[in-house]
């Protein structure tokens, strides 16, 4: 079982929290240092200096490189295998990763095209072939590393460590979901839309946590998260988002906090959980999500 299997490793439980705590502390320091600073204006200044692709690399590279850091820490400091950090199966199920990526990538594409055709005045055509191709290469390399870092840190290392210490399933699920959401609090979207958008970030963290626990591995969460950030960045950009890219479309509408935030969390994510539960035959929901670590 994904959470239980860490009991067979002999690392000091404190080691499970060193990397996550260090990362969270760094994020808090960055948030405090940026208080009173217009994050969007800062990003625009970076874009003027280094270009769109240069700014993209500067913003995403630290998190992408963080993937190597967390994998090194887990393998060589904790003495835990990367497979056990990824899944409870005998080997990583790449079909699960690609299936989840395909499902959410398809939904994201359909929703974007529907938004474009129903509200064309909210978008402008932003596609420039040469710039897009350069960005495409950068995004394919860096974005999956960035999203995998967040999954391995929150749904992997931190969730397993908290489960080991608390002997609970629910506590790690809730705590990692909240911390995952709070990690995004310095994003320019928060300043533009308001703190209500944290419902989406925390709700997404909760959804990914449930995926991980119910499916006994990170594969579905890895695929979903990669599709969410990669496909989204390739399709649409806006002047008020964290990632401003050479995408196909540019959203020029004024952002609003309402249906767009609540709809995925309350409608789409539950439907996706239902779909995955049928495909992979999940059972014992209550026991798996709220039971003790020793329960099967």
TrEMBL record:
Transmembrane segments: 14-34, 54-76, 97-117, 132-149, 170-187, 193-213, 220-241, 261-280
Record domain CAAX prenyl protease 2/Lysostaphin resistance protein A-like: where: 132-231
Pfam families: Rce1-like
Superkingdom of this protein's organism: Bacteria
Sorted UniProt keywords: Membrane, Transmembrane, Transmembrane helix
InterPro entries xrefs: Rce1/LyrA-like_dom
Record's protein name: Lysostaphin resistance A-like protein
């Amino acid at each position: 079982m994904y959470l239980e299997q860490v009991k067979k490793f002999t690392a000091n439980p404190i080691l499970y929290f060193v990397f996550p705590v260090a990362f969270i502390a760094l994020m808090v320091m960055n948030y405090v240092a940026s208080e009173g600073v217009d994050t969007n204006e800062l990003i625009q200044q970076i874009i003027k200096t280094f270009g769109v692709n240069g700014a993209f690399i500067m913003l995403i590279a630290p998190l992408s490189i963080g993937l190597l850091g967390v994998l090194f820490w887990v393998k060589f400091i904790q003495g835990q295998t990367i497979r056990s950090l990824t899944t409870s199966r005998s080997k990583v199920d790449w079909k699960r990763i690609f299936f989840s990526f395909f499902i959410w990538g398809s939904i994201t594409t359909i929703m974007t095209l529907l938004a474009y055709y129903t509200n064309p005045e909210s978008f402008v055509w932003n596609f420039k072939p040469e710039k897009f191709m350069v960005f495409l290469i950068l995004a394919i390399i860096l974005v999956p590393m960035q999203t995998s870092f967040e999954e391995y840190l929150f749904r992997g290392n931190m969730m397993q460590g908290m489960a080991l210490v608390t002997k609970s399933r629910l506590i790690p699920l809730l705590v990692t979901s909240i911390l995952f959401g709070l990690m995004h609090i310095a994003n320019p979207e928060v300043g533009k839309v308001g703190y209500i958008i944290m419902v989406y970030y925390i709700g997404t963290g909760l959804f990914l946590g449930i995926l991980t626990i119910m499916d006994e591995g990170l594969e579905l969460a890895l695929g979903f998260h990669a599709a969410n950030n990669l496909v989204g960045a390739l399709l649409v950009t806006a002047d008020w988002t964290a990632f401003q890219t050479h995408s196909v479309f540019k959203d020029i509408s004024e952002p609003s906090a309402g249906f767009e935030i609540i709809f995925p969390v309350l409608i789409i994510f539950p439907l996706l959980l239902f779909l995955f539960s049928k495909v992979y035959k999940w059972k014992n929901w209550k026991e798996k999500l709220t039971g003790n670590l020793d329960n099967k």
